[in-house]
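call fold(seq) -> tokens
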Amino acid sequence: MKNLEPKVLWNFFHQITQIPRPSKKEERILGWLKDTAANHRLDYEQDKAGNLVIRKAATPGYEHRPGVILQSHVDMVCEKNAGTEFNFDTDPIQAYIDGDWVKARGTTLGADNGIGVAMALSVLTATDLHHPAIECLFTVDEETGLTGAFALETGLLKGEVLINLDSEDDGEVFIGCAGGIGTKASFEWKKETAPAGLFAFKMEVGGLKGGHSGGDIHQGLANALKLLAGYLGRLKAQMPVRLATIQGGNLHNAIPREAGAVVAVPYAEKETIRVLLNLYLAEVEASYNAIEPGLKLTLQSTDAPAELIDQRTSDRLIDALNACPHGVIAMSTDMPGLVETSTNLASVKMAGNRIDIVTSQRSMGEAGKKEIADAVYKVWNDAGAQVEQTDGYPGWKPDLDSRILTVTREAYKTLFGQDPAIKAIHAGLECGLFLEKYPHLDMVSVGPQMYGVHSPDEKLSIASTQKSWAWLVEILKNC
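ret:
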């Protein structure tokens, strides 16, 4: 990577990949950013939440122009493939180049949003750019709930324009984003001694692409938990089904790639479960063959467990997982192709005598967000679970008359001879929260092409990164 152009940008990104930076554990990356600022004699300030601002004076001739804030988040989603030995708390990302792509071996790459951090640092340390006063805002804990942006202190930022560097689509300018809310459910279950005469098996769903629950939800990707629940529901309709364990998914903003359960049925149904699996698999493959070519549903016999989840909880959990909505709920009537409202069944995890279910809802409007969140709440409440919802976060309403949008569009046209696409994103950006604290901000969001973010398939385009860097330089020159 360090041999790629521009060298300063790729050198910074390489260094960032070598620093462990899981959400809520950003101390090392923040320390490195402070050291970098000190080494270049740049002032910095940090708020109580950990958000860091590094400042650089305007270049000659730009002193009276509105100040520009370049914003990115320092944490990364920590996902790895099953069987990959990797500790995100201690190990550097094993990045490599494959043609035009930078990838990571068996883990997320962290280009979301490490490349944004690298771009901001490249502006801060450059000596040959033209720009107004620069503030680089590095926020913490974006990936687990926009915590840093929620806690951003008023008075910390002085600039009037904010360029968010957390987008993932080449040649596109984002001027709006969805708001979101989380709905969490929990069952308290009792252990029951397994009766004699049971056949136990392990059911696993894997090989799925996964992806971002906002940015990728429109693709119709398979959800491992929904596939697992679908099969368990088929069994339950024909025979008594008992769960010993169940788990799937990881993060609230990632579409589950893997899920599994240890299940017990009457021994006489041993052959029936395989017949039903074959029928179910044929249906699933017909639905997802084009988009999920790696999909796998496997069934393997296992020793009968000594204890099981109580029948009532097992039944209600299976029914609720099947009833819980997932995917696109409505499309925007204002911007063609934009998802208006969606929901993600994100994870099921067992902890002691609890089974915890995490879901997340998104919508461009507050009414849509409340409507789908209430629908998900009802599913789990009716199933007898304890349900709670997060406070949520606001969306960012598009402003087609924005001055920075005009500058951004003209800069792209000057460099590349065509207009960029103007879009809103269904994913949650921090921009909506910044507007609550700094309502005067004029904002856009840009970034290079990435695919598979929030999954080990994450990859970053080299050519698009070079293009995005040239675009950012041109924007700053004309701000």
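The domain at 7-178+395-478 is CATH 3.40.630.10 (Aminopeptidase).
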